[in-house]
């Protein structure tokens, strides 16, 4: 059973989310501010915790007292790669971008449609588990026909492992999917809308900012000089490509 951490300072929202999620068979852990969310993650996903106890996904509001969702995201990403979906108000467009900047995987706007919410949760969990999330880390192994290699970057799609010059690089599920898409077609330019539709499998509304944030994160992890990238190249006015040089 997947365990989901729900964090919102409004108890009615937490209760509603708990009803929706438990109805789908998920186990729910509750928190009411960012500090409590981090405490729950330490309790369930800390070094002394068993794999069966782990939280697999976080649903977290942005606007909360004591520690808001953005601050909590910054701290969370220092230790955990589990998917995070932010809950935002329609007026919080800048916060959505900021949330993606600091490592959120997706967001959903309040008031939310329960069907859409559950679909996004399932999508994030599916990607996370495909990347070895149940083990808490990327596994070892793989075969040559599952590997993509460009320069010093190697992606092993069997083990879901990415290395740069032989050193492991820890990617979120979205970052991994974008990298895999571009590495499978080196030299081909993908527009932000095409990347969004391929990776998120959703209509591409808001794709440009969302994809740009994730590409920037990839550059920070894979480029020695992110301001002058060797691998992840922007083709101005068109999109992004993986250099085939």
What would you note in describing this structure?
The chain is of the alpha/beta class. It folds into two domains: 3-135, Rossmann fold, CATH 3.40.50.2300; 144-242, Arc Repressor Mutant, subunit A. The chain has helices at residues 11-23, 34-45, 69-76, 93-101, 114-130, 173-184, 192-199, 207-222; strands spanning 3-7, 27-31, 57-61, 84-89, 106-110, 147-150, 153-156, 161-164, 167-169, 232-235, 239-242. The strands form three sheets. A five-stranded parallel sheet has the order 2-1-3-4-5, with helices on both faces. A four-stranded antiparallel sheet has the order 6-7-8-9, with helices on one face. Strands 10-11 form a two-stranded antiparallel ribbon. Strand 10 (232-235) and strand 11 (239-242) form a beta hairpin. The longest helix has 17 residues, at 114-130.
Describe the structure using short key phrases.
245 residues, alpha/beta, Rossmann fold, Arc Repressor Mutant, subunit A, 2 domains, five-stranded parallel beta sheet, four-stranded antiparallel beta sheet, 8 helices, globular
Topology:
Blueprint: E1 3-7, H1 11-23, E2 27-31, H2 34-45, E3 57-61, H3 69-76, E4 84-89, H4 93-101, E5 106-110, H5 114-130, E6 147-150, E7 153-156, E8 161-164, E9 167-169, H6 173-184, H7 192-199, H8 207-222, E10 232-235, E11 239-242
Parallel strand pairs: 1-2, 1-3, 3-4, 4-5
Antiparallel strand pairs: 6-7, 7-8, 8-9, 10-11
Helix pairs in contact: 2-3, 6-8, 7-8
């Amino acid at each position: 059973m997947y365990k989901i951490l729900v964090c919102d300072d409004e108890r009615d929202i937490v209760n509603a989310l708990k009803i929706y999620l438990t109805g789908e068979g998920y186990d729910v852990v509750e928190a009411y501010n960012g500090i409590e969310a981090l405490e729950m993650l330490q309790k369930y996903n800390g070094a002394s915790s068993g794999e069966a106890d782990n939280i697999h996904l976080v649903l977290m509001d942005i606007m909360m007292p004591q520690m808001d969702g953005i601050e909590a995201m910054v701290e969370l990403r220092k230790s955990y790669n589990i998917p995070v979906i932010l809950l935002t108000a329609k007026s919080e467009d800048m916060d959505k971008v900021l949330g993606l900047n600091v490592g959120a995987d997706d967001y959903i706007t309040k008031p939310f449609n329960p069907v859409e919410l559950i679909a996004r949760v399932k999508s994030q969990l599916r990607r996370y588990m495909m990347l070895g999330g149940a083990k808490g880390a990327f596994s070892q192994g793989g075969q040559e026909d599952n590997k993509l290699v460009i320069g010093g970057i190697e992606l092993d799609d069997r083990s879901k492992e990415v290395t740069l010059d032989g050193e492991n690089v820890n990617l979120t599920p979205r970052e991994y999917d974008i990298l895999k898409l571009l590495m499978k077609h080196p030299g081909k330019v993908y527009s932000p809308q095409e990347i969004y539709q391929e990776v998120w499998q959703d209509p591409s509304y808001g794709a440009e900012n969302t994809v740009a944030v994730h590409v920037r994160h990839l550059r920070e992890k894979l480029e020695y000089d992110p301001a002058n990238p060797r691998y992840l190249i922007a083709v101005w006015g068109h999109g992004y490509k993986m250099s085939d040089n």
